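Handout, section 3.2

Students often ask what a structure token actually looks like in practice. Rather than define it abstractly, here is a full record for Proline dehydrogenase. The first block is the sequence as you would receive it.
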Amino acid sequence: MELLLQAVVEGRAEVLLGTHNQASVELAVARMSELGLQPQGSNVYFGQLLGMSDHLTQTLGAAGYKCFKYVPYGEVEQ
């Protein structure tokens, strides 16, 4: 995450941080703030699986961060 966020600062990357772990999200948000990456103005996105850590997605979204919920579709065997 550290390397990716630094690459975002340098304009070399966009990153989707896919985690259901609250401590990881808090660390990412804190590091973004330290690096001057604004919630809406940066190329940093957060993503969680629908039904998992919905409270994190809702909190991030309410704070202005770019969030995605991904929804698997189809038979498990596929």
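Discussion prompt for tutorial groups: The longest strand covers residues 44-49. How would you have guessed this from the sequence alone?
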